Amino acid sequence: MKVIRAADRPTKPAPAANFTGTVLQDEVVTGTLPSRLRASVVSFTPGGRTNWHTHPVGQTLFCLSGIGRVQREGEPVQALHPGDTVVIPPGVRHWHGAAPNRLFAHLAISENGPNGETTAWFEPVSDADYTAAPG
Ligand code: MN
Predict the structure, then answer these.
(1) How far apart are the CA of 107 and the centre of ligand 1, in A?
(2) pTM given for the model
(3) Which tens digit of pLDDT belongs to each residue from 79-115?
(4) Separation CA 88–CA 123 (nearest Å)
(5) Which of 71, 74, 112, 113 is least surrounded, with the fewest CB atoms within 10 Å of its CB?
(6) Exposed, middle or buried: residue 69 (CB in 10 Å: 0-12, 13-18, 19+)?
(7) 76 CA distance to ligand 1 middle (Å)
(8) pLDDT of residue 103
(9) How many angstroms does the Cα of residue 53 sit away from the middle of ligand 1?
(10) Domains in the chain, please, with CATH?
(11) Predicted pLDDT of residue 11
(12) Among 23, 1, 33, which Cα is nearest to 108's?
């Protein structure tokens, strides 16, 4: 076993190609085969969100702090609060991020596909979709 020290892993900006606003990532684990596990803490500043995307084996989000948003395409936006868990099925288009006026952080847990498939990224979430009142 090993202990990876927080001080040895700098926080990284989330790639601007796949996110809107200022979003920061702290890697937790990137598994080595046969593990396909990936986990990171993602911190969104107000207005920050992912682009629309899908996960090959789905994704679990565990909400850590702040107030967030999540939307499955075709369904209302939902508000997220600390302690909430979101289970996202494989191949479902969705986005997640902060509420427009609050910080938000979640633990994101997923697996690569059996042939190494990773997240499929699509277009940014429009301001109109993002600012819709949570259902
Ligand atoms: Mn996702």
Answers:
(1) 11
(2) 0.96
(3) 999 999 999 999 999 999 999 999 999 999 999 999 9
(4) 19
(5) 74
(6) buried
(7) 16
(8) 98
(9) 6
(10) 11-131 (2.60.120.10)
(11) 98
(12) 23
